[in-house]
Amino acid sequence: MRKGKDNKPHIGIFGRRNNGKSSLINSLAGQEIAIVSDHAGTTTDPVKKSMEIGGIGPVVLIDTAGIDDEGELGRKRIAATMSVLKTIDFALLVITDNCFEEAERKLVEGFRDKEVPFLVVHNKTDLVPMKPALRNTLREEVGHEPVPYSVVEGTDPGAVISVMKKMIPESAYRSRSLLGDLLSYGDVVMLITPIDIEAPEGRLILPQVQAIRDILDNDCIVVVVKEREADTFIRKMHPRPKLAITDSQVFLKADATIPKEIPLTSFSIVLARQKGDFEAYVKGTPAIGRLKDGDRVLMLESCTHHVSCDDIGRVKIPRWLSNYTGKRLTYDVVSGLTELPRDIREYALVVQCGGCVLTRKQVTGRIRPAIEAGVPVTNYGMAIAWVQGIFHRAVAPFTQQTETPESYL
Q1: In the predicted model, what is the mean pLDDT of the chain?
Q2: What is the full DSSP assignment across 315-383?
Q3: Identical fold at 10-172 and 188-269?
Q4: pLDDT tens-digit readout, 200-242
Q5: Tens digits of residue pLDDT in 177-202
Q6: What percent of the chain shows pLDDT beyond 70?
Q7: Domain 279-408 CATH class label
């Protein structure tokens, strides 16, 4: 199984306290990377660990708190454990003592609800061997037999790893190309990359780097210019670009600069197609035109970062939305994968960033509750394109639509 250029499978380890989850992690990794203790509850919160599993490759493994934790704090830890389900590609459910009861069934229900493939491992078989009755029960209830395991007896981790390799989806290893289906050998792609106060010192932002790498991986040519030089360069450029990609913040200038016969989009919209629910974004964006006074808008950032006075998600997009609608809107901003401050149904619109630091599973899991609740979702780049009147052009490279933005209202 091949590993993608920038993806690592996210694997969650679940089970009761003192079931040997951390010991299993160390055994699979072949090294001591998790704290092991005879005291139940050593792992209190989900902990991410980047590691290498022989036969699979680099992964991000998430060690979780016990699903049988107790007390008010314990309930919060269990809630944190359950929240991991929307971010992982695969799960290991560790059981012992032939115990598969309500807590485990609730986890399995969560795995299925989030469409997470999973494997049940019966650990500590040196102390309590696995009974045939458990095999039969789990074969009927979860669709496979549990894998017996004992760290003490030195069980070969290959049995678990081989099953994991078969069950982890290929999409967890290999992300779809950003632009590969749009380009042919030798095509030229022009990137317009402003250098402003939000740009990191001495380097480009991650979406720009990802686009450059993807273009080169597809045996094409990339030309990078700032917005001030784009106009001069496009007049001299030969051959003309097959595609132009701009930072969303300079969409209007790019739209005026790039001839209409050259497709134009933004880095955020390119990422929306790779990592988000592109169709849901396209469908949800026109809801901007239906916002009313008092509506609440949720801004979802992928990462935590230094906030500047011109922050795109916290300052610019809210200002553009408010100016475009002329309505009194309230904005909540949530960074990373932290819990929302209120029920998703209280929002009139959700605006998700490109998700350059997240996996596709994490981005889609982030917006899924909104989609299921009927709350419109859009993307940073699409929202900006809409309020600036160039939505149709910005999504046209990836769609067959012929509608004008007004037809969505």
Answers
A1: 86
A2: IIHHHHHHHHH-S--EEEEE-TTPPPSS-GGG-SEEEE---TTS-HHHHHHHHHHHHHTT--EEEHHHH
A3: yes
A4: 677 788 899 999 999 999 999 999 999 989 988 898 888 899 9
A5: 899 999 999 999 999 998 866 666 77
A6: 88
A7: alpha beta
Does residue 225 contact residue 258 with C-beta atoms inside 8 Å? no
Distance, in Å, from the CA atom of 58 to the CA atom of 167, rounded to the nearest integer, reads 16
**Residue holding tokens 């979780």?**
64
Are 188 and 221 in contact by the 8 Å Cβ rule? The answer is yes
Task: Give the whole-angstrom CA distance, residue 352 versus residue 364.
Answer: 10
Q: Where are the domains of the chain?
A: 10-172, 188-269, 279-408
- Helices (DSSP H) in 205-359: which residue ranges? 206-217, 227-236, 251-257, 267-275, 278-284, 317-325
The answer to whether the beta carbons of residues 380 and 313 sit under 8 Å apart is yes
In CATH terms, the fold of domain 10-172 is Rossmann fold (3.40.50)
At the topology level, CATH places domain 188-269 in Rossmann fold (3.40.50)
Backbone angles phi, psi at 36, to 5 degrees: -110, 135
Mean pLDDT lowest among 172-176, 259-263, 276-280, 331-335: 172-176
The SS3 call for residue 188 is strand
> Cα–Cα distance between 356 and 312 in angstroms, integer?
15
- Asked if 364 contacts 214 with a C-beta cutoff of 8 angstroms, the reply is no
